[in-house]
Amino acid sequence: MDVWALWLIIAGVLFVVEMFTFTFYLLWLSIGALAGGVVAILFPDAIFLQVVVGSLVALGLTVFTKPLAARLRSSRGFKDTGTEIVGRQGLVVEPIVPGRYGQVKVGGDTWSATSTEALGKDQKVIVVKRGTTIIEVERWGDTY
């Protein structure tokens, strides 16, 4: 197998995982892997150069896009849909056991979720906290 194909596979896997996490860190790593793949096409035997270029591209994207993202988030009219999820009602689609993740559907989106109590499938819940990609829920109606 050619080295560029390995870079392409790595980039694809990182991209797919990014689609589940929405953190953008893996997206930058994926683009870095693509850059390494381009170098691999041009210089197939220069493995060190491929790794350096891929790393520099990923690092550069990470460093230079943070201020842009911060500016975007602080701009007037920006709404982070993730923060609006707290307080909304959801429906358990995969049972939640304390200490393990389940899945909850809130609106049209499905989230990985935790809870301090066991929650069964099709149980109504309320979102009490949101992490980067995981929400914390409680049984609907306990306190509301």
Automatic annotation (TrEMBL):
It holds the Pfam family NfeD. It is a multi-pass membrane protein. Residues 84-139 form the NfeD-like C-terminal domain. Keywords: Membrane, Transmembrane, Transmembrane helix. The chain crosses the membrane at residues 7-28, 34-64. The keyword Cell membrane does not apply. InterPro entries: Membrane_assoc_protease, NA-bd_OB-fold, NfeD-like_C. The keyword DNA damage does not apply. It comes from the Bacteria. It is found in: Membrane. This is NfeD family protein.
